[in-house]
């Protein structure tokens, strides 16, 4: 009976979990008068200082959103409304745990305040 329960535990499917860190797109890199739209600022959840933020340098990030029209998914026959803009964390920003990221296409200003997924790869550990 004990053996059966152990075998059952081992054959269980892995529990679903988040494989990315949460961030929020707070705005673009800017000075007093001009803003550089090619660099996005992301406030990382659980990051309070520069040292915490430096862990995320080089990590891939994704802005996932829903569009009006369906487009075909890569390597699949079905279509979906979900779209992704991929980017990379380039460096830290300020002292409060924000990071700068460059995306393949500049983020839409409408996306300000929305979720950015920061993947935990490539690893530098």
Question: Could you characterize the architecture of this molecule?
Answer:
The model has no long low-confidence stretch (mean pLDDT about 90). A six-stranded antiparallel β-barrel has the order 1-2-5-4-3-6. The radius of gyration is 19 Å and the shape is flat. The longest helix has 9 residues, at about 1-10. It is built from two helices and six strands. It is about 10% helix and about 50% strand. The chain has helices spanning about 1-10, 50-55, and strands at about 20-30, 35-45, 60-70, 80-95, 100-105, 115-120. With about 120 residues, it is mainly beta.
Order of strands, widest sheet: 1-2-5-4-3-6
Distance between the termini: 42 Å
Order of helices and strands: HEEHEEEE
* Global shape: flat
Class computed from helices, strands and strand pairing: mainly beta
Tally of helical segments? 2
Mean pLDDT: 91
What is the strand tally?
A: 6
Radius of gyration: 19 Å
Strand content: over 45%
Low-pLDDT runs of 5+ residues are none
Q: Report helical residue fraction.
A: 10-25%
How can the largest sheet be summarized?
6 strands, antiparallel, barrel
Short structural summary:
This protein is mainly β.
């Amino acid at each position: 009976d004990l053996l059966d329960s152990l075998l059952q535990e081992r054959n269980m499917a892995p529990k679903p979990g988040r494989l990315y860190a949460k961030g929020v797109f707070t705005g673009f890199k800017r000075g007093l008068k001009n803003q550089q739209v090619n660099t996005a600022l992301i406030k990382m959840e659980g990051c309070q200082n520069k040292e915490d933020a430096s862990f995320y340098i080089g990590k891939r990030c994704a802005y996932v959103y829903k569009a009006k029209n369906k487009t075909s998914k890569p390597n699949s026959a079905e279509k979906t409304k979900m779209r992704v803009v991929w980017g990379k964390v380039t460096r830290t920003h300020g002292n409060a745990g924000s990071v700068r990221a460059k995306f393949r296409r500049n983020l839409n200003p409408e996306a300000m305040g929305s979720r950015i997924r920061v993947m935990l790869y490539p690893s530098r550990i």
